[in-house]
Write a structure and sequence with these properties.
alpha/beta; 2 domains; nine-stranded parallel β-sheet; 8 helices; about 45% helix; elongated
Amino acid sequence: MTTKIFKAVGVFGILFLSLLSIPTLAFETETGDAVTISEPRTNLHVSAGEVTVNSDITKDLVVAGGQVTINSSVNRNLLAAGGQVEINGQVGGASRIAGGEVTLEGEFNDDVIIGAGTVTISNATIQGDLVVGAGSLSLENSNVTGDIYAGYDEYTGSDLESQVAGEIKEAMIDKPSEEEQKENRLAGKIMSVFFRELSAIVALIVLIVFLSRRKRLHIPSLNFNGRFAIDVLVGVATVVILPIILIIASALFFPITIPVIAILIAMAFLSTLFLPVYIGNLLKNSVFKNSSIRNVVIATYVGLVLFHILKVAFPPFQILNIALLIFIAGNFGFLLRKKYNAINTYLTKR
């Protein structure tokens, strides 16, 4: 977290300070795929895929590119951003640098602020403070006359105390091991499954309670038969074909199609909400004929929760998703067939 804060401070500090100190009233602009500056300039703004500055800039330089290389002097302030930023010259004013990989080798006569994935500083002199947030930081054979404020995941350079004259404030974040990362991801997925299933159960209970005159679950006589097969086919066809139709219809008749999309989203939500009831009904009528429908539905809820947890913990269980997708398609097809009467099919008076 500390590293992220340092990175954010570095990047936003670069942008903020640039507004305060970079004049924008009189400047030259260069753009293109590849730009090389070979003649002295005054105030220069450059944006290109590849930028190389080989001549002195008498005032400020603002540069952005995929690859940025500065081999000359900038008499005042420097603002640089890019995928790869390499600075080998001299900067008379403050430097703010953001990039994927930043390499500094030269003389910097004021504060330097860097936010990057990898920062390498070697054979450099910084006549001010150094503020850096990086995933990986290396400081070699360099001299910082001011303070250093550094946040990083990994440090690979020489001893900081021998290279920094001022105060050293650093925050190194110990990255968790591969095993710990795997365990954390697994725990996160399991908690996500738990809360998702819990919210589905709560939503179903709330729906039943608010339908005050419909107090009891009523399960239609569903079975593994031809009607079920038709529902599955309708559900699959809807999922595959309907998005294409909606995209075309939206392009031609927008916003008329908004109510249709809203209805389908609501039906998809109901399909998810009532899925355990739907599966429980099929199992009751086909397998557990002597069991209470309520017990079968509750067991189905529990079974789905366990299934989701197992497929997160043990990836081979993912193959069982095929069966679940068949049930989902059948349930969606059933809701489409029943239309708005689907809720009445599930919920009825005592």
